[in-house]
Design a protein that fits this description.
Strand content: 15-25%
Number of helices: 3
Helix content: 10-25%
Bound molecules: adenosine monophosphate, zinc ion
Strand order of the largest sheet: 1-2-3-5-4
Distance between the termini: 37 Å
Largest sheet: 5 strands, antiparallel
């Protein structure tokens, strides 16, 4: 069993505000929102970061993007748009070692790097 904050959220050992869940994926509100809508979409499988992705994860990662779009629709932001960010490793600024996709929306997002 992984001693990981997001695995603990999946196991309901740490409280969170869950907005989506199925057998493979869970999404919950970020505890320190950087935008009016800031949701973390994660695989239930403990993948530490994009670096550890395996061939067998390809379908799962594709599904995550479909779920992100579904959540964006439920949140009513499909027309205005949204941003998805994955921080990877030290230079990428990753703080939690369980792969997660930040879904940000609800305002005109600033500080575009690319
Ligand atoms: P990153 O810097 O890409 O690793 O992002 C980690 C994110 O996890 C940050 O935006 C944190 O605010 C968020 N976070 C950390 N702990 C929790 C928690 N217990 N519940 C919800 N979000 C969390
Ligand atoms: Zn984990």
């Amino acid at each position: 069993m992984e001693d990981c904050i997001f695995c603990k959220i999946i196991r309901r050992e740490v409280p969170s505000n869950i907005v989506y869940e199925d057998e493979e994926i869970i999404a919950f509100k970020d505890i320190q929102p950087a935008a009016p809508i800031h949701i973390l979409v994660i695989p239930k499988k403990h993948i530490p970061s994009l670096v550890q992705l395996e061939k067998e994860d390809e379908i799962l990662i594709g599904k995550i993007y479909t779920i992100i779009n579904k959540i964006a629709e439920e949140q009513g932001v499909l027309d205005k748009g949204y941003r998805v960010i994955v921080n990877c490793g030290q230079d990428g600024g990753q703080e939690v070692g369980h792969l997660h996709f930040h879904l940000l929306a609800g305002k005109r997002l600033g500080e575009k790097i690319v």
